[in-house]
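Hi all, long-time lurker, first post. I run a small reading group and we've been trying to get comfortable going from sequence to structure in the token notation. Rather than ask abstract questions, I figured I'd post a concrete chain and ask someone more experienced to write out its structure so we can walk through it together at our next meeting. Sequence below, copied exactly:
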Amino acid sequence: MQLSLFKRIWQKIKQFFREVRSELRKVTWPSRDEVKVLTIIVVLFVAIFTAFIGVVDLILSRIVAFIAK
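-- Answer (accepted) --
Happy to help. Here is the structure in token form:
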């Protein structure tokens, strides 16, 4: 009983990885240039958004400090 359960689980694991491999072959991978451009875009967006959140935080903290006085 234990052995058959182990075999079934092992077969399901193997089938899962076969399907994963099959799906990964279908993926259209981006070129190196596309990856570079998109990485730069993401980094710039994160930097800009971080600066925006920092400014908003600074303004709100000063407002709260002013009200708390």
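A couple of things your group might point at:
Residues 2-68 form one domain.
The mean pLDDT is 95.
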